[in-house]
Design a protein that fits this description.
By secondary structure, the chain is of the alpha/beta class. The protein contains 14 helices and 13 strands.
Length: 357
């Protein structure tokens, strides 16, 4: 990407949507900025948005207003969103427009073509038409045929965890993390990461279930939560009652280090799955949303996670305690070995190469 290139990102974060869309766009934006590109984020001001966080990362943000009575992923209809975006950018032309939003599709993308040279979609669902040059779906098990009905012949489709958008520190810590697991697979440090929002307090339910589990007496628990997580005060209070030292970390900037130093994770089956795979971190996974289910099933089939089930369903707490009672060093090692071959941490580099074509 040449110096001075202008890139626009359209992505949202909220208590309902979560933070993953914005976070992976930020990863790509940092890489583009390192090549001299100028990146702009356009985000609606939903409750739980990350607009101030994006600005602290050094990127300009245009905040679209909330629409009275708005609902769904987008908070308004696509026409209103497109009109507001076009008005906000004031006829600026962008070399690339990158959209990562389940509430937007072909109609919105077509409406934005007058202000961009090329358009890229980041998706996970393969459930709606797109009008774009480049489409990225980083999920395991995705096939080209899944998008064939949804994109034109001119669209190049990038599929699978080879293109997972991970921050550079995951590739940097991969070697040491894998080496550490080869030397010892004992369970001393447990990491709990249920996304930046965790709207339904799955973290608290996990901690309650762990009280009846067979964790080693010398274990340590680290919980990572986002600053907008609505149940954060309750989780902090609960952490003080745990039989093991339990730290609640908020808005961390060293996730790769935390994962590399952990022996086991209990985590959401979302985009952090690829981070854990890159570092070979064995994981007990929970599905928090419908869009996570398919990737979780493929990861389970690959032996890269133990899938506990749907966090909104019944029985997963009992399964959690059952798994911990039978989890051996050999099992930890096997899960780690299966996970590490799925993601190598070079997805951003591959994506940038494709954007240069």
């Amino acid at each position: 990407m040449g110096a001075g290139a202008k890139i626009m990102f359209r992505a949202d974060a909220s208590l309902k949507i979560g933070t993953g869309h914005v976070m992976r766009c930020l990863t790509l934006a940092r890489a583009l900025a390192d090549q001299g590109a100028e990146c702009l984020f356009v985000c609606r001001a939903h409750q739980g948005n990350l607009n101030d966080y994006i600005r602290r990362q050094g990127f300009a943000v245009i905040a679209l207003p909330l629409v009275p009575g708005g609902s769904g992923w987008l908070g308004c209809d696509w026409q209103t969103d497109a009109e507001q975006c076009l008005a906000a950018i004031e006829k600026t032309n962008f070399n690339w427009l990158i959209v990562d939003h389940y509430g937007l599709g072909e109609n919105w993308e077509t409406a934005m073509w007058p202000v961009c040279d090329r358009l890229m979609v980041i998706d996970d669902l393969a459930n709606r038409p797109h009008d774009c040059d480049l489409l990225l779906d980083q999920n395991l098990g995705r096939k080209a045929g899944d998008y064939q009905p949804h994109v034109g012949d001119q669209c190049r489709v990038l599929l699978g965890p080879d293109f997972a958008l991970l921050r550079p520190e995951f590739a940097e810590m991969r070697r040491d993390s894998l080496k550490r697991r080869g030397a010892s697979q004992s369970l001393k440090t447990l990491l709990i990461t249920m996304g930046g929002v965790d709207q339904h307090n799955v973290t608290g339910k996990i901690l309650q279930a762990l009280k009846d589990s067979a964790l080693p007496v010398d274990a340590r628990i680290q919980v990572v939560m986002g600053p907008h997580a609505p149940w954060l005060p309750e989780v902090k209070t609960l952490a003080k009652t745990m039989p093991w030292p339990t730290d609640v970390l908020v808005g961390v900037s060293n996730m790769a280090q935390l994962m590399a130093q952990s022996d086991l994770a209990i985590g959401a089956a979302g985009s952090t799955s690829w981070e854990r795979c890159c570092l070979g971190l064995p994981t007990l996974a929970l599905v928090l949303a419908d869009n996570q289910r398919e990737a979780a099933q493929f990861l389970e089939g690959a032996g890269a996670i133990i899938l506990l089930g749907n966090a909104q369903g019944a029985g997963w707490q009992a399964r959690l305690t059952e798994v911990l009672a039978t989890l051996s060093k050999d099992m930890l090692g096997m899960i780690s070995d299966n996970a590490r071959v799925i993601v190598d941490g070079s997805g951003v580099k591959r994506c940038l190469q494709e954007m240069q074509v």
